[in-house]
């Protein structure tokens, strides 16, 4: 009898990097899907989620991020058009100006009231939830 094959979602992380002056860091993706996104990516085997968030942020923005809290986990099977991913989102803080590298064509800061419209994945939803959390202290309901 053949062993059952499982298709499991892939773990990812995203990081909302806060800078002084009510700004956050976004990257413009070099690879499809194209557009602006939170710094983040796939978790390596044997890597804790929080370490992956710090690593991905540094690789894509050049910033050393101090994680402040785990924000929420997003798991809609349609959140990534490439395959089913589950992303744990962190809120972190950093200082300095980001520099796009790795798979980020560009990294820039944006005021919270002037985010770009062409956000990838479900990052528009994530940032909407984040803005509501900043305003009310309430997290997204499950």
TrEMBL record:
Q: Name one GO molecular function term.
A: hydrolase activity
> Where is the Nudix hydrolase domain positioned along the sequence?
8-133
**Highest taxon above the source species:** Bacteria
Annotated keywords: Hydrolase
Q: Which InterPro entries does this one have?
A: Nudix_hydrolase, NUDIX_hydrolase-like_dom_sf, NUDIX_hydrolase_CS, NUDIX_hydrolase_dom
Q: Which PROSITE patterns match?
A: NUDIX, NUDIX_BOX
- Gene3D superfamilies, per the entry: Nucleoside Triphosphate Pyrophosphohydrolase (3.90.79.10)
Q: Please give the Pfam families that the UniProt record associates with this protein.
A: NUDIX (PF00293)
**Family, per entry:** Belongs to the Nudix hydrolase family.
Q: What is this protein called?
A: ADP-ribose pyrophosphatase
What is the species of this protein?
A: Hyalangium minutum
């Amino acid at each position: 009898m053949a062993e059952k094959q499982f298709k499991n979602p892939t773990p990812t992380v995203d990081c909302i990097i806060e800078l002084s002056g009510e700004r956050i860091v976004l990257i413009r993706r070099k690879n499809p899907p194209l557009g602006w996104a939170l710094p983040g990516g796939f978790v390596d085997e044997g890597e804790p989620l929080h370490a992956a968030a710090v690593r991905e942020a540094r690789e894509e923005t050049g910033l050393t991020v101090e994680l402040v809290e785990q924000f929420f986990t997003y798991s809609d099977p349609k959140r990534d058009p490439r395959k089913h991913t589950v992303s744990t989102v962190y809120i972190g803080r950093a200082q300095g100006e980001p520099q796009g590298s790795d798979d980020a064509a560009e990294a820039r800061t944006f005021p919270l009231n002037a985010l770009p419209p062409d956000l990838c994945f479900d990052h528009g939803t994530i940032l909407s939830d984040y803005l509501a959390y900043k305003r009310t202290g309430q997290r997204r309901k499950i």
